[in-house]
Design a protein that fits this description.
This protein is α/β, with parallel strands linked by helices. It is built from five helices and eight strands. The chain has two domains: about 120 residues, Spore Coat Polysaccharide Biosynthesis Protein SpsA, Chain A; about 45 residues, no CATH class.
Amino acid sequence: MKILVGSPIRQKPEVLRYFLEFLTYLEDFENLDFFFIDDNVEETSEKLLEDFRNKTDRVILEKSWYTQDEEYKCDNNTHHWTDNLIWKVADFKDRIIDYAREKNYDYLFFVDSDLLLYPQTIKHLISTGKDIISEVFWTKWKPTDPIEYPQVWLSDHYNLFEAKYINAPEEIQTKKNAKISKKT
C-alpha cells in the first residue's frame, strides 16, 4: 500500500517544528512518503523542512514557484484569506495530486502544517473503506467566539451553509446552527 502525505507549507518555525515531529509518530511512519511545497518566508522554517527531508529518502520537497507573493496575514484574531491566496494553495494541492497520480499512490492524505495528528489517524481513515474522507477539526475562528466551529466551509470565506437563495439574517443563523449541531 502506497500512501503519500502532502502539504503546502508556510508556517512559523515554532509551529512547524511540532508538526514535523508529530508526523514521525504516525503509525507506519517508515512506510509513508511525503510531498511538501515550501512556501515559507522564514529561513528557519525552510531549514526545518530540509532537516526533515534529510532524515529519510521518502520526502519530496519543492520550492514555491510563485515569484510575486501576496502577503498572508494571520494575527491574534484570525487568518485573513484572499481569493488569490486560496487559488495559490489550490494550485499547490493540484501539484501534489498530480504527483500522487503519476506515482500511482493508493492514498493521498492532505494535512495542514498547524495540526498535531493522533498516531492512528491515517490507519483510521483507511479502515473506513471510503474513497474520499476527511477528519473534521473543531476550533474557535476568533478568540471571542462562544463556541468551536468545524474547520471546513461550503463556500466563500467560512460559510457553513449553502448561500443560494438565503437573504434574511435569521435564516443564515438557522442554517449555521443546523450545521454546527451536527458535530460528532
